[in-house]
Amino acid sequence: MKRAIVFGATGGIGKAIAAQLAAKGWSLYIHFNHSSQEAEKMVAEFIDKYPSQEFFPLKLDFLAEDEVIKTTVASLLPVNAAIFTQGITNYQFLGSQELTQIEKIMQINLLVPIKITSLLESQLLKRKHGRIIFIGSVYGGQASALESVYSASKGGLSSFAQGYAREVASAHLTVNVIAPGAVDTPMNAIFDAETLNEVKNEIPAGRLAEPSDIVFWVENLLDKRSDYLTGQTIYVDGGWLV
């Protein structure tokens, strides 16, 4: 049985990834922090639709102490893939941000995903086609003003994936980043219609990405035929910035 854990599974991109993987026969851990009702709802719907597969809600606060993270990861059944879709940002000038907020962004977007990857390594190396996929950002390649810390965290994911992929490539464990541009998800709902239209006008493809545009590349990276693609950042941005 192929099993994956989708971190941030109740978010816009995470939810789309989980739904597609469930439809493709994957058993899933549905990770959440605050959205327990949404996670439970997703699990119940998946169990009803796909009774031969296994689905579990998984609560983990990425700001928790290391011992909590270790205990949570140690409790997991073996997984073939880990997909990190969680992420936060803070749209402000750096000098206006609290130091605790800067640390929070780096912790959730970069540091804890690296820690969890380390804890999952031993079991993923045993899989024939192990997969680690990070959802990064176009801003990891070309950083954005007012989101400099967010940009640094996403750029850090790309650098980490490039280096770590070389450590585990011989075991057919691939490590890649999918870096979307602007995606039509609740994360971008903070911007008004005028601002979003300005962004659309800057994108050569003429629209924001849909979550399904990202899911397509997740599916490709999970395919066993993708063993030779590793350490890469794939920009899915409609020709926008990178």
UniProtKB/TrEMBL annotation:
State the Pfam families in the record. adh_short
Q: What's a BP term from Gene Ontology annotated to this protein?
A: monocarboxylic acid metabolic process
| SUPFAM superfamilies reported in the protein's UniProt record | NAD(P)-binding Rossmann-fold domains
The family line of this record is: Belongs to the short-chain dehydrogenases/reductases (SDR) family.
What name does the UniProt record give this protein?
3-oxoacyl-ACP reductase
